[in-house]
Amino acid sequence: MNATETNQGILVDNLCKSFGGNQVLDHITLQLDRGNTYGLVGNNGAGKSTLINLLCDLLKSDSGTIRLLGKSYSEHEYAIKKQLGVLTEDVPLQESLTAYDYLRFVGMLYGLDSTDLRQRIDSLFEYFFDDPDDLQKRCGDYSTGMQKKLGVIAAVLHKPDLLLLDEPFSGLDPSSSRQMIDFLKAYGNEQRIVLVSSHNLTYLQEVISSVLVLHDQEILFQGTLEDFTDNGENLMEQKLFNMLSGKQKNLNQLSWLMDR
Amino acid sequence: MGKLIAFIAGKRIRTLFFSDKEPLSLISRYFLVLIGVIYGLLFAFMISKNAGHVSGDRLLRLSTFSVLIFLSFVLTIKNYIPNFRPVTLVISPFYPVSPLKRAIIHSLTDLFVPTTISLTLFLAIFLPFSGIFSIFDTVFIVFWLLTLIYSERSFRLIIESAIRSFIWF
Fold first, then answer.
1. Which class in CATH covers the domain with range A34-57+80-258?
2. Does the CB of A100 have a partner CB in chain B at under 8 Å?
3. Fewest 10 Å CB contacts: which of A22, A130, A222, B83?
4. What's the pTM value of the predicted model, to 2 decimals?
5. Tell me: the pLDDT tens digits for B36-90?
6. Nearest to A109 among B91, B167, B168 (CB)
7. ipTM, interface predicted TM-score of the complex
8. Domain extents in chain B
């Protein structure tokens, strides 16, 4: 492995994906480097989750190539997945298992040593949850926000270099969101690459260093957060609104609903 | 892999038969298993009593295979009626598990459901105690049911894959 290869994060070249004739991603090309936390933003249905699902091998592309950490799935599937942490929109929890058993199960899939695994589970759980007894609750009894936090714990148990998070803030209360922000800020280092997809731009802005805007099946913007917000002069939310729509909707047509 | 299978199987058995959630479902699972045992004993008793008396063993074997056809029918439709039940995905594709290992774990854990447990108990009691079935018959019946279970599973996977390809994520 050469130096360039070890430094590579995510390389996507001419990626296309459609569902039943509906084109969702059209010749997407992008390069994400290690040492950065990227924010993936765009309107509903822009293809953010599709892109993440393609990156983590949950979906197969129609055409194009994906290289993660300098490797392709076709040649080094196992090696890539060992270094990959994923939080999908719907966390794939085993609802009948307790949170502890679920995390143990995930740890076993990554081949983690049981003593080390226990320590990792305990420390991560202590950070994200207030009540240690929740560890013995069934995943099915968890609220949406709790499931999300559990999903993040499961995604980082093996200390992955590549972390893909789809809507990590959805369903979280303000204090849990703050914990998540602090955690994601601390998680990033020069070896790691984090990709976060979210609609919550206020939270996202605190975490990321670079922005990817997905719109109309294409990458509309790729650059640093400073470039996107014009060195902090604009809020990310306003900039994105102007970039994607720019149209203020008129409420007059809903007068029948608003009038007494 | 053995450790992982033992872990999953243990947890599944515990959830199915020792969970304090949904007591009615728990009772129905015990009932289903009990039916397997009782019917196994009854069939074995009936066949062993009549062996050599009623029109020969061939007729008894024929009746047994018609029961198996009925069981096959039940096994086939149980995942479609009253509603379609998707295949349980124990290990998501993004985990570092080889396709072969994943398939083995999924296939084995798929067997830890009340219907299969009940059926296994039924056959484990019925086949040896009825006294008219050879080892060949037993192997044939077991392979028949396994083929049926996995063919039906594959069919469901095809349906799910077709559904997924039309869903916009």
1. alpha beta
2. no
3. B83
4. 0.83
5. 899 888 888 887 777 666 556 667 777 777 888 888 888 888 888 888 888 877 7
6. B91
7. 0.86
8. 2-164
